[in-house]
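Data availability (excerpt). The following record was deposited with the supplementary files.
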Amino acid sequence: MFIRFFLLSILVGSSLNGMSQKSIHKKYDLFFSWGYNRAAYTKSDFNISGVGYDLTFKDVRAEDYVTTFSLENYFKPANLTIPQYVGRLGMYLNERTSISIGVDHMKYYMILNQNLEIEGQISPQASEKYADTYNNTSHDVPFRFLYFHHSDGLNYANIEIEYNFPLWTSLNMKHSWEVVGNLGIGLVVPKTYVMILNDDVDNRFHIAGGGISAKVGTRFNFFKYFYIEAASKNGFVVMPNVLVNNEKNATANQRFGWTQFYGALGFNISLSRKEKDNVESP
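Predicted structure:
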């Protein structure tokens, strides 16, 4: 019934031939959206050093982690932040431009048992099993040698400036379709698990670095106050301060690019909703 009413409203709105058209005043309107993403990552070098070792693992590959879809996993309030999510809160500065803050929660998992080039050295005191000097030679890297993930997650907390370009608007001004694009900058606040030389720690949330991003997408607004958005977002993060252990006698750093595709549902909150008549149609 709702879908039938929704489609009928769009058709009626598009076919109205009133004496005037109206445009919606968005300035200072608030908006909020929530959705879920899939992410992919470029290869990256992972440098890690501690007591008795200093190593660089080159061209490490990683993947995201998708929570199994179910009503409980994705719609139960207590579980909303478990899957890879995107959440935003913002305000329109004028009809086309908005500013917002948000979090892109991605999960970054190193792929297990890779063959990687390694540069550096490990002393016998750090590990008798893996003690050696590594001169950019390829080695199989099992779980106990090195494994890590930013699984809770690779949190990109950011601020964005966005511009929207209208493609279509119904004559009753209740529905519209637009292209959106933005630029963002922010901090990376992961919770990182690190296994190195048979020693592991699941670390706390921490500021590991920062990043930049850009987005392009499409948004369908319906009944003035609600919208559905689909977008592709690309970014680059630099993390010079990845936690390795609680003693802080080891450090790690990493940088890589990422891309994500997401879908989100949002709503607008009008602080001073006004409608203004344009020039009357002949």
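Summary of structural features: The two ends are 37 Å apart (CA to CA).
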